[in-house]
Amino acid sequence: MGARPLRLEATYWSGPLLCTPTPDRWILGLANIVGVVRNFQLVRDRIVDVCIAALPDRPAAEDDELASLVLSSMPVAFVVNPGHPLIGKASLSFADIARYPTLALPAGSYPKVEASLQSIGLWNDEVRMTRYRRDAWEGKSEAELTIGYGTALSLEISGGSLVKLPLDLPFASGEVVVVRREFAAHPELQVLCDLILSRLQVFAARFADIRLLPGGCWS
After folding, report:
1. Is the pTM higher than 0.85?
2. Per-state percent for the chain, helix, strand, coil, to nearest 5
């Protein structure tokens, strides 16, 4: 109704890169909750009005309470520290990756990502955290033979010391707006989506693998 500021939660990369400066009339959360379960529950319980999440873990199309809109798509790459043995290998397969530990967050944090990686023998070196910490995620890859994952946006704020391997994961990431279904057509939400898309355009101009998806449909 416009009487109070709207509340926005985001991922650890979309918070600083796409939601800062905070849009007019919005309050931004800490943007460091790991996983989608808690973030989606915050929207269900009306604690936050909108959550910026990441593909492929968006709410199901048949979800009665939540609707989602995909704003962008981008590949997810395997990333390692500069001294990793796989750097410079002429061609890589998932079998090559599986010879080394790969990062895994607590079970159920990102259900679709987890299932996809487990299906090819990955997601095996658990990181026990519910709040994002660079030292426990990117820092782990920098210090060990562990293989991590990154997109153009997540690598943008990861510290810059990780190396992308020439092999993408078997799914795409991207920015997804999640809201209670009854608010999907609200004018304030369209303004927010337009602003985030305009900020995504800046990164798409720098990184060719970011694909913008304006004019999408809520599902």
Report:
1. yes
2. 30, 25, 45
Could you tell me the domains of the chain? 6-72+173-212 (3.40.190.10), 74-172 (3.40.190.10)
Q: Which two tokens stand for residue 162?
A: 């990780």
Please give the mean pLDDT across all residues of the chain: 94
Residue 1 has pLDDT above 80, yes or no: no
DSSP 75: E
Sign of CA dihedral 57, 62, 63, 66: positive
Distance from chain centroid for Cα 209? 15
